[in-house]
Amino acid sequence: MIDFSGENIVLVGALLLFVAVMAGKVAYRFGAPALLLFLGVGMMFGLDFISYRSVDMTQFIGMIALCIILFTGGMDTKFSDVKPIIGPGVVLATAGVAVTAFVLATFVWAICPLLGIEMPFPLALLLASTMASTDSASVFSILRSKKTGLRERLRPLLELESGSNDPVAYMMTILLIGIVSHGSGNMGVGMGLLFFVVQMVIGALSGYLIGRLAVWTINRINLNNASLYSVLLLAFIFFSFAFTDLIKGNGYLAVYISGLVVGNYKLVQKRPLTVFFDGFTWLVQIVMFLTLGLFVNSDELLHGDVLLLSLAVGAFLIFVARPAAVFLCLAPFRRFTTKARIYISWVGLRGAVPILFATYPLMARVDQADLLFNVAFLGTIISLLVQGTTVSGMANLLGLSFPERESAFEVDMHEDMKSGLTEVEVNETMLENGNTLREIVLPENTLVMMICRNGGEYFVPQGSTELHVGDKLLVISDRGEELASAYENMGIDDVMEIR
Fold first, then answer.
1. In whole angstroms, how far apart are CA 88 and each of 83, 91, 326, 434?
2. CA distance 499 to 422
3. Which residue of 54, 196, 269, 284 lies most exposed, with the fewest beta carbons within 10 A?
């Protein structure tokens, strides 16, 4: 076994990252969740090569990684996309987590005596709370790899839910650890609810204000070295979490709200910042998943009572608890079809967060904390195996998927530019008056910048350039409404706006 210390850290870390990236490539090709293979790599190295069992370090790595992941998720969420579904999204992220936890806890409390395990209801609810939030990051990596879109605004709904439901699960976990550790007499239900509301309100308000402060600072600081903008934004992320936690708010909610604010305001160096945080988020996810895989004790997972309870919990969570929460929470919202509700239920995928939250009882030395952690770990594996590998297939089966069109052009426009970029495909109606570019009727102040032909041949056109059906045109214009009318006259209804 390699001791996880000293100069070996660099060698082992590089090897782990290399193997994890290769595993991620395999997962991307076969449509499997990359998280599953990252965990597998960590477990494999933990069996024979690396001795690692630090709860403190695991929790610290998880905290740092979760801050980055939540902030990036908020930053990538366009408020214009989530605004139409913000009601059901917020209900799923709050009440949905609570309903899932209570339904699952009731099942765990009822089944444990049959397996010879003594587990009071508060402890069963603690286990259920650690597993109550969803992680759809791997879901959308699968959908994007297959170029699959979702109808009925399901993608922004699931992105909003998965990005904002971790704070609720975190709060429930912390509250229940206090109740289980010190007895319900020290923290009654009323005090617990008040604590929960105060934490969420302070977290949301702090996150919004720090997000606005980050936008104001970055837009006015005028750094000579553009690379330092990423460092500055990192400082705001960690400040948002730590400061909010210091004033008794929910730091994870603050981080997500800060990211949502930063992502939806005009920002200097926004494109480079987005690229940096996309890569950095993958790095911290890999590190967190590998760490959790290294941390687990594989021998404990093979105990009969752990295996039976984990299988029962995983199956009940997938087929009963999650669907019950979804159908109950979405009952007031008539816009979703039954098929859409079934799909939302199915993609309640568990990820690294339940495993991370399950380390908190270990830190607090709660009774049966090892059992809770192992069940949460195996329950996550079951969710990834059953749901994670069938995300795309279930969307096709329910008739909710459609081929997602990708842009043929990658363009980075400054946000202050008034002109709009669109991409359209040449059809026969467009060529009725002639097949050269000068014979195409376009509004004033409108220019075809580039043509993509046969999927890979790019060139700048002239007025005499002959157009072919299927050519893709990159068009820039100051006359957006007139151009839209021209497209309509040409029979073009599939117009892609490039931001």
1. 10, 5, 10, 50
2. 9
3. 54
